[in-house]
């Protein structure tokens, strides 16, 4: 890194400058024409903030509690695969930085360090104090014993929730990866959570099966084999959000996978009011996709999200300067969030309500849902 990063954008540029272009493309890319990738970010720019003043908010808190676990900021690290592609310490570096910031990290099932080792690194980074919760992201596997073994590994590691990604009946079509011939991890790296789960293939990316066979019955089955809170990641339709609640799911991650699965779906921010209305506050909704600024976080929380997730920014900061980079990234977002709260007249996340945002061209006649 040449200059001190002052924003997520700086990390993006720094990562692009240092990384092998094949990996830079893997991180930045999305499905097909990448229309949804762009839409996610653009939606935050379209929505306006309408602050309140003279609210006496000199004392502010960014704390949140989710499923009984406390975090010191409403920004969590969305699951991203293969951290060792961009940093030799991989997920260990990320976990230390998240722990230092008090932020929830969602470990990808496709991590290049085993979940137990990641959890241990987070605990050590907190030197006796309670680390923030670690969650585990899961792709249901056609072989139930494999899924069960993964759940057991996550549980034994002390993970506090399972994030089940349901938007991946097939792997998204990343044309950049195809063009670059990027299909697998380089020699020496593997998906450590999968080691010894299937005969003959030790930690191979190919072991992660995407399948279109899953139904709500599989969610019920998962509900029956674990006491951990279950969040579904990738539910976009309000009817599916209602179904999720009916099936006893504990939370939703409103995500379009950063535009990496089905292209041309709406920006997650645009869907948030409908999803929040569908779940009626019965379960928390975490939004990810395109969050790059403290103002973005505030907008999502104002529209009903309990927290937001960041995907690419973490990979960029990690690629730029490892653990230090991710620490700096989370500090920057914390600073941005705090000054946005100050300028909006808010003292904490509970003060972030729909009256703080305005949809300039999203009037009633546009057909968009306005809370
Ligand atoms: C490089 C990369 C790897 C990802 N790996 C996973 C994964 O293993 N599991 C998953 O559920 N989502 C994965 N995602 C999606 C993220 O969890 C998240 O939904 C998305 O990145 C959020 O959008 P943002 O990158 O604009 O913040 C990945 C995204 C990226 C960019
Ligand atoms: C099997 C790894 C999946 C990674 C992923 O979800 C993504 O790159 O978006």
Automatic annotation (TrEMBL):
Domain of life: Bacteria
Binding-site residues, glyoxylate: 139, 257, 260
A Pfam family per the record: FMN_dh
GO MF entries: FMN binding; oxidoreductase activity, acting on CH-OH group of donors
FMN hydroxy acid dehydrogenase domain mapped to chain residues: 1-362
Binding site residues for FMN: 79-81, 108, 137, 165, 233, 255, 288-292, 311-312
Annotated organism of origin: Saccharothrix variisporea
Protein name as catalogued: 4-hydroxymandelate oxidase
PROSITE patterns in the record: FMN_HYDROXY_ACID_DH_1, FMN_HYDROXY_ACID_DH_2
């Amino acid at each position: 890194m040449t200059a001190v990063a002052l924003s997520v954008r700086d990390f993006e540029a720094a990562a692009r400058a240092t990384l092998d272009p094949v990996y830079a493309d893997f991180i930045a890319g999305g499905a097909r024409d990448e229309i949804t990738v762009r839409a996610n970010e653009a939606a935050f720019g379209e929505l306006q903030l309408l602050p309140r003043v003279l609210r006496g908010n000199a004392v502010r808190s960014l704390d949140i509690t989710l499923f009984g676990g406390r975090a010191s900021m409403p920004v969590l690290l969305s699951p991203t695969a293969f951290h060792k592609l961009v940093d030799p310490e991989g997920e260990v570096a990320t976990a230390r930085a998240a722990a230092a910031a008090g932020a929830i990290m969602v470990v990808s099932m496709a991590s290049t360090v085993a979940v137990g080792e990641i959890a241990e690194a987070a605990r050590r980074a907190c030197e006796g104090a309670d680390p923030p919760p670690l969650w585990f992201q899961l792709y249901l596997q056609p072989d139930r014993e494999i899924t069960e073994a993964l759940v057991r590994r996550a549980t034994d590691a002390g993970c506090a929730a399972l994030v089940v990604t349901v938007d991946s009946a097939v792997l998204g079509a990343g044309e950049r990866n195809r063009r670059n011939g990027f299909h697998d991890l380089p020699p020496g790296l593997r998906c450590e959570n999968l080691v010894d789960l299937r005969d003959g293939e030790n930690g191979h990316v190919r072991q992660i099966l995407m399948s279109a066979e899953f139904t709500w019955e599989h969610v019920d089955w998962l509900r029956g084999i674990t006491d951990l809170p279950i969040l579904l990641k990738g539910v976009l339709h309000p009817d599916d959000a209602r179904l999720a609640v009916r099936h006893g799911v504990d939370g939703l991650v409103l995500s379009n996978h950063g535009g990496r699965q089905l292209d041309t779906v709406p920006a997650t921010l645009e869907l948030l009011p409908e999803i929040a209305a569908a779940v009626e506050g019965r379960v928390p909704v975490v939004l990810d996709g395109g969050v790059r600024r403290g103002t973005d976080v505030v907008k999502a929380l104002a529209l009903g999200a309990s927290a937001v997730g960041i995907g690419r920014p973490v990979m960029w900061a990690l690629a730029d300067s490892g653990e230090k980079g991710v620490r700096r990234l989370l500090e920057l977002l914390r600073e941005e969030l705090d000054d946005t709260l100050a300028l909006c007249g808010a003292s904490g996340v509970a003060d972030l309500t729909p009256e703080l945002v305005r949809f300039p061209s999203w009037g009633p006649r546009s057909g968009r849902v306005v809370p």
